[in-house]
Batch of 2 targets.
Target 1
Amino acid sequence: MGHTVPPVNQHPFLAGGGTMGELIRNFSWDETLIGDPSGWPPSLKNSVSIMLHSPFPMHITWGGEFLQLYNDAYRPILGTSKHPRALGIPIYESFPEIWDTVGPMFYGVMKGTPVRMKDFKVFLDRKGYMEECYFDFAYSPILDELGEIRGVLTNVLETTDKVKAFVELENTREELRASEFHVIQQRDRLMEFFMDSPAGICILDGPDLRFTMVNPLYQQFFPGRELIGKTVIEAIPEISNDRIIDILDQVLKTGKTYHGIDELIPMSKRYDGAVEDRFFDLTYQARFDEKMAVSGIMVFAIEVTERKREEIRKNEFIEIVSHELKTPLTSLTAIVQIAESKLQKGLSDSSFLIEAMSKAGSQLKRMSAMIGGFLNVSRLESAQIHLGKTIFDFTQLVIDAMDELQLSSSGHQLEMDCRDVHMLEADREKMISVVTNLMANAVKYSPEGGKIIMDCSKKENELIFSVKDSGIGILPEDTERIFERYYRVSSSVTKNISGFGIGLYLSAQIVKLHGGRIWVDSKRGVGSVFSVSLPLSH
Ligand code: ADP
């Protein structure tokens, strides 16, 4: 014998079921198409009874009009606006807003096609507004005892909260991904800034100042040297006694930033390399830990050695210039003084005066040539040199310049190998200064009695002019640099030869302005060949 729920009215199968049980029992079913419960087919009675006792949300429609019955668990799905009106009326009157969607499914079930949906989205008006809702549900047919489909049973679980939580989670994940991307992007940017910084940057950590970060430019100060993980003294032992270490200590002690301009640090580029005077513009900035104690030093450094060296060369240059200008000035002063005293004594010897004036003239010429050279450097520097091009025979220009130079260089033998006419379009005056400069250097840097051979030839569309000497020659490391401004080779031989280091610089600039090239092939102790190529016009 099964347990019986005490009958509440004349229909024992409608017993129990909480609020909905009571509403169904008290409903006037005889006024509907379903009729009084006593006349219900057994399958409907069974279904309703199962439904009323189920803690799972269930809903039944009966007949072609889809009149509804549902249990307590189903009530929340109807919200406040559809319950309790929904009981006993057609489903399409309760759910007009979704009938377009679920209507066809109901008709389908009535024809024997059940429906199963997961997280199915609908917009329901059950609380006075349209609400996005999700449901897992199954529609299944209810057959009567003759096997005819008479109703639809709905088992349904609302999943709105689950879906919304999931969407929320996805959004949060998406936001997280976005912010993670942002963080990575920021980090990459900072890294890029660090890597591409035009200043050398490194971080020295701890009281013994260990390299923990070094950007590429900083590493370039010390090619091939291992820095990371080493202390400053270990990595750069040659500065261990230098004042720069005291400065670093001071920053560690006081936390005060140090700025140095043109700071001289005697340092080598590589381990065991030659220590050289190097110059840096630098900032040492203390780093602090969370307790505001100095934890290390951030170094920003820009090497200015080249600029500083050029400055030193320039100062040397000014010194030499002053010195060189003083020599002709002294002899001019002497000539003028002697001439004056001779004149005061009532001069009769005009031949002396003629010679004195000619000497004075050549000293003045030397001085104005020198000054002209310096002027050209400053004009070049401010891009004020303009080319006044004409067409002339370059070979003849070389011969004339050579003959002129031969007058003052009787100790050397100047020769021209080629006598072919080479017409060139160029600035004639400037070409004279290039040619003269190369020939004068050949004289200057080769011993008395030496032969200097000039040559002109045409190669493809270029005119090649060369000056060959058998002089002191040039070391490979100097061959590029001699074309730099103020650059002079320093050796025991050259230190006694006066010069300013601007002749080749000027020549190279003039040749470049003409679209040509200048270079040297040389061997120390054997001699040099300086060559110039100039484009020929068609
Ligand atoms: P300067 O001769 O006034 O010093 P330059 O610019 O003409 O200046 O030359 C630069 C340097 O190149 C010279 O100081 C010298 O050391 C080197 N040099 C130039 N020409 C020759 C040469 N023909 N042979 C050897 N060294 C040379």
Target 2
Amino acid sequence: MSDPHELKVLNPATEQVVATVPAADAADVDAAVVRATRARTAWAALPPADRARLLRRFADTVDAHVEELALLEVREAGHTLGNARWEAGNARDLLLYAAGGAERLLGRQIPVPGGWDVTFHEPLGVVGVIAPWNFPMPIAAWGSFPALAAGNAVVLKPAETTPLTALRLAELALEAGLPEHLFQVLPGYGDIAGRALVDHPDVAKIVFTGATRTGREVMERCARQVKPVTLELGGKSPNIVFADADLKAALDPFSFLDNAGQDCCARTRILVQEPLFEEARAFLADALAAVVVGDPADEKTQMGPLISRRQLDRVRSYVPEDAQALSGAAPDGPGFWFPPTVLTGERPDSPAAREEIFGPVAVLLPFTDEADAIRLANDTPYGLSGSLWTRDIGRALRVSQAVRAGNLSVNSHSSVRYWTPFGGFKQSGLGRELGPDALTAFTETKNVFISTEGPAQ
Ligand code: NDP
């Protein structure tokens, strides 16, 4: 059993201990929230341009440490070097984008009789962010940086397996001149520190990213205090490939293998129109065999290990020895390795075809026509993202309207952009992050009416 007072961070490629970090308990959370409450008052009172200037300095400091942050991510999360560099750059870019938002957090003037009516976006106070291990830096950034830009303080609890890059980001914030205690990172266990943050009466909002089951509990606990919550939860996204599609582009294996499949947007249900099915199977067999799986610190590596023994066991449970499958290779020995895999004999209602596996495993399923494709795509409790491939523009428009998901790509597997909104339909979540409205999710709208009639005589 793990020690409740410390976190042991393992390198998932070697199983070696990278660091040991103290784990926060409820008293630590309480003390952090008290400090954050003090810090946020002065921060909210700063002119927006001053907040923006400090956040831009923070972005410059992150920029100067991209390589260091990336190497830390490789060691604690097993991400490939290329991905880890992108992730550190994403945190920097979001800081710059959010900084501009501080200067553009505009209210409205609404015509009314007898006076003027104006709205203000006021910061909430202290925001609690609970981040997962699959993209430790970007997801911590998406929850925290727009909240800071809108005038709030943030207490961030990273996942127990990946606290190191978040801790480093908090140090860089101080180095850049952000006020003390404004952006605090509290590593800890979800059922101790995470719950304490959710339950704290002085935490005004929770942003949670993780499993749908955990998100449901977080939402229930927030409901007791009528506390607003943003939830980014699981996915089981379709990749719909019509017979007229560019097959090679549509079946890019990194649409589900990126980050070893530990991606809530991974296109793990490959739906292929019947005439193309055999060609798709042959193409994927070759593509999986060509994927370079290994040491994530090696520039040539395309896919690293899974995050933990627990995640490896979970992924394995979906791929029994006798499963009909196409697969690539993975290293032996220490590390949490699983080969790129496509299951070809699943029924649409089997657990592997319906549940979020969160590993390098997709299912290949045939469909007959457009209606069948839409039915299969929507036959899931999730609705996070998806791709569709066709040269018929009318069909592309019809299908993108019919698929119930928050983020769709047509003839592309485009990933998340910090300047467009991101979030899920159905049990994939609640609310949106990123994009032009990211800051308003961390504000209350206040409406003020000013009479022009003069005081009553
Ligand atoms: P969790 O949802 O348990 O973890 C996400 C975050 O929530 C972590 O920081 C975790 O802390 C924390 N947490 C856990 N329990 C609570 C709680 N009761 N109250 C408050 N915070 C809590 O995900 P897992 O790590 O268990 O992963 C399991 C599965 O979840 C994956 O296989 C995948 O299917 C899905 N998942 C989806 C993600 C997504 O981006 N949509 C991200 C991660 C996982 P701690 O690290 O200590 O557990």
